[in-house]
Structure formats: structure tokens, C-alpha cells
Amino acid sequence: MLHVADIQEHKEAYIKALKKRNFEAVELFDKVLELDEKRRTTQAQLDNTLAESNKLSKEIGNLYKSGEAKKASILKERTGNLKEDSKNLQETLNIAVVELDTLLYTIPNIPQESVPAGTSADDNEEVFRLGEVPVLAEGALPHWELAKKYDIIDFELGNKITGAGFPVYKGKGARLQRALITYFLDKNIEAGYTEYQVPLMVNEMSGFGTGQLPDKEGQMYHVTNDDLYLIPTSEVPVTNMFRDVLLEEKDLPIACTAYTPCFRREAGSYGAHVRGLNRLHQFEKVEIVRIEQPENSNTALEGMVDHIKEILNELKLPYRILRLCGGDLGFTASLTYDFEVFSTAQDRWLEISSVSNFKTFQANRLKLRIKDKQGNKRLAHTLNGSSLALPRVLAGILENYQAEDHIKIPEVLIPYCGLERIDLA
RNA sequence: GGAGAAAUGGCAGAGUGGUCGAAUGCGGCAGUCUUGAAAACUGUUGAGGGUCACACCUCCGGGGGUUCGAAUCCCUCUUUCUCCGCCA
């Protein structure tokens, strides 16, 4: 969420930037500043009332000690009113704070200068493309048919034991996916990321810290008995490790990587685009998360993009990178690059990674700050990205590496996989 | 799941109704000494709000209560530890 002081300072620039998201902020900002003013004046009144009441209490204590009980009981009567006042002021304050916060939760992050204006995915800006889109031989199959042909992913079996969107990976399919996970983690560790294994369920505070709650509640599976949420991405538990943390400059940058399954309800998704591995309720993902000094965060973002490029180059998959336009930018992001791998058989691009700089938007909710040598504190910048989302990478490999009677394993994965190809059973 | 104990600053650990935002030790920071370092000594060192800056307010696991006044008493929730049971 945005910081009120920043809204005050950069109001006009923020209003202009939010227009790129087609978000009208003028009235909201006015209301925010008004509520903040109210918050501060009420707080001041409350503080004064409490100060007076503290003073009286001290006097009463002294009077009792010197044996002047009568004088004390006279003073006691005055505390009653103060108590009433402070109770009312506290209530007014609480209401103002809740109203202010509720409003702030509805305001998305400020898009950066480089974010193009736009209303939909069509307005995203392609910033990189590797080579030409390949053309497959006649009779090339989409990955869901390959999965069946080589008996490596069973969608029906998942249907039976859970429901749609929960596939079962089998034999060499399972092995290939496991190889990819290990390969991704190794690449990340090599690049300086520390590996974590984190809980797959999080509490409400964590969902709130990274911005899934309150507004994206319907996208997460909620375990109501224990009031826990299944993670939609490891970003949530990993970033929340740093909730309520005051870092020192020497601790930075922080770079974490984690492999987890991810769970998404995907309410409202339907149609041909959810076929096969394209969109699942449970999928595997390796994530990278960074915490940076504000002045380094955009450089760090470029570094993450380069890192993911390297992985895709090694896998020799056709891909492109998009800079998301204002209309397609996620609520919490200030700048996002999407990586898409080309699904040759489907003739469409599949998103396999999304790399974002959140600047202080998450840190403000998380209360994640940095203290410098002089003791000054400021909010950290958080970033994250997928490296990578497994099912669609898998789909890309199956489709792009298919031959008539086998699927080749990408060279870089052979040592991880212990296989050179997937043959007909 | 049952029984008991506990939760205090970066850490350890005092504090059982007012003089406590909190002793003491360790750690951190600054300085003295030293060619430099270590040791020793001196000072300093929690967080949030508020203010131009002070003042002032809030915070001793979370929430509620008693009281003129709560780290301290009461209720409740959470977490941790010990013992028993169960268990990958």
C-alpha cells in the first residue's frame, strides 16, 4: 500500500502515473489526505487527554503517600471525565484509521516511468525476442496429446482423485519435472540466491503482507477450520519471512529462492485456454525474491531478467519478454516483465515468469525497513520473479522438442534427468 | 489429545500496584590508550506516533477487564518449554 507522506509529497505525479492504469486517483487522494489530517488531530487530542490524566494520577499517588487522602479523592473525581473523553477520542481515532486503511488498500502501486499506457495485454511492449518462432513438422502435437502418447502426464487420474486442474505426472514425466526443479534451484543458488523450504499454508497476516488479502481472497484456497490459506505462490511465505523486520544496510541485498507447489482457485477461468498444462489449480514453481536498497532495486530487476534469460537460453526454448502496460500491471507492482515461451503446437505464447519490482508497496504493509549507520530508517524495496513456473516450461519442452517417435531432453537437463529422450512405452 | 510451567529491549536476565521504557551482563556504536589490533577504561545504544525542533503519547506475546494509576492483579487467545499419550 502507498505511504500517506508520499501521496502528500508526490500527489500530482502519482495521479498522472496512475492514469496509465486507467485509475482515477484525484478524489481518492483528497479523501486520504483529509482522513490522515483527521487521524493526526484526533491523535493529538487523545495524547493531550492522556497526558493530563497521567499527571493527575501521579499527583494522586503523591497525595496518598503524604497521607492527604481527602485531597486525593477530590482529584479522583476529575479523572472520570478524562477517562470518558479519552475513550471517545480513541473510538474516533480507530474509526479514522480503519477508514484510511480501507481506502489505501484500494489504491494500486504507482507505475514507473517506463511502463507504457494501455488497457489490456495487447498493449504490452515486447522488449526482447529470441530468434524466430520455430515451425514444427507436419503432425506436431500439443503437449496434452504428447502427454498421453508417451504416458507421462495423466489428467483424468487427477480428475478422479481430486478434480480438474490437478494432473498426475508419471514416470519420465515426473522425472523430467523433478529435473527441471533441481536445475532451476541450482541456477539460482549459483547466482547467489539462498534456498529455502517454506510452509505451503500461511495465516491471514501473511496473505495481507504481500497483498493477496484482502482483495484477492477468492483466488486462494482457504482452510477454514484453521483459518489458513494455501499459498498461490512461494512469494507469500518467503517475503513474509521479512515481515516486521528492521534490516541493517550490511544485510542487503537479500536474495532467496524456493521451490513449492502453488495453489490457485482460478475462479472464472474457462475455455480452450485452460487445456492441458496451460492453467492448473496446483502447479510447481521455483521463485526468486530479493530485498534491496531503494536506489538499487531497478538495477536488481534487470539482473533478475538477465538471470532468467540465461536459464531459457540454456534450455533453448523460443521466448519473448514483455514490459507490461499499465492496464495489465498487477495491483502491487510498479514495473513488471513477463516471460513467455512459445507453444509451437498451440501457436500461442505462454507466460512462464513474471518479474516485478514492488518498490515500497509491499514493504509498507510488511513493515520491512532498513536502518542506516546514522540510525535513519526507511522502507526497503521488494522484488520477485518466477524462475520458473514448471507446467508451461514443461509444455514448451514437450512441444518444441518433439520428434516423430520420441521427445528429446534438452541437453542441459540430461545430467539432471538421467535420460536423453522420452520414447514410446 | 491430557497435565504443568513460561512469554520483558539484538541476546541473556531482574523487576509482583505509583519514583519503570524498564536494573544488570553480553552484544552494537563512538571515544581514550596503541604504530595498528586486542585488552582495559569512558560514554552511548529499543520501537511507533507526534513536532520545524522540543514537549507529549503509545508499546513488557495478542485482545479485554479491575484501578485515580498495571510489566506487575483478573479473564481470554496465541505461542514456547517439560511430562504423558499418539504418530511420519
Report what the structure shows.
The protein is an alpha+beta fold and 425 residues long. The protein has two domains: 4-105, Serine-tRNA synthetase, tRNA binding domain (Helix Hairpins, Orthogonal Bundle); 121-423, BirA Bifunctional Protein, domain 2. Helices cover 42% and strands 22% of the residues. It contains twelve helices and 18 strands. The protein has helices at 4-19, 26-65, 69-105, 143-149, 155-161, 172-190, 204-209, 235-240, 297-315, 360-366, 390-400, 414-417, and strands at residues 125-129, 153-154, 168-169, 194-196, 201-202, 222-223, 228-230, 245-248, 254-263, 282-292, 319-323, 335-343, 348-359, 368-371, 377-379, 381-389, 406-408, 421-423. The strands form five sheets. An eight-stranded mixed sheet has the order 1-11-12-13-16-10-9-4. A hairpin with a 4-residue loop joins strand 12 (335-343) and strand 13 (348-359). Helix 2 (26-65) packs antiparallel against helix 3 (69-105). The chain is elongated, with a radius of gyration of 27 Å. The two termini are 53 Å apart. The model has no long low-confidence stretch (mean pLDDT 91). It binds one RNA strand of 88 nucleotides through residues 40, 43-44, 46-51, 53-54, 56-62, 64-65, 72-73, 75-80, 82-83, 246, 367, 373, 375, 377.
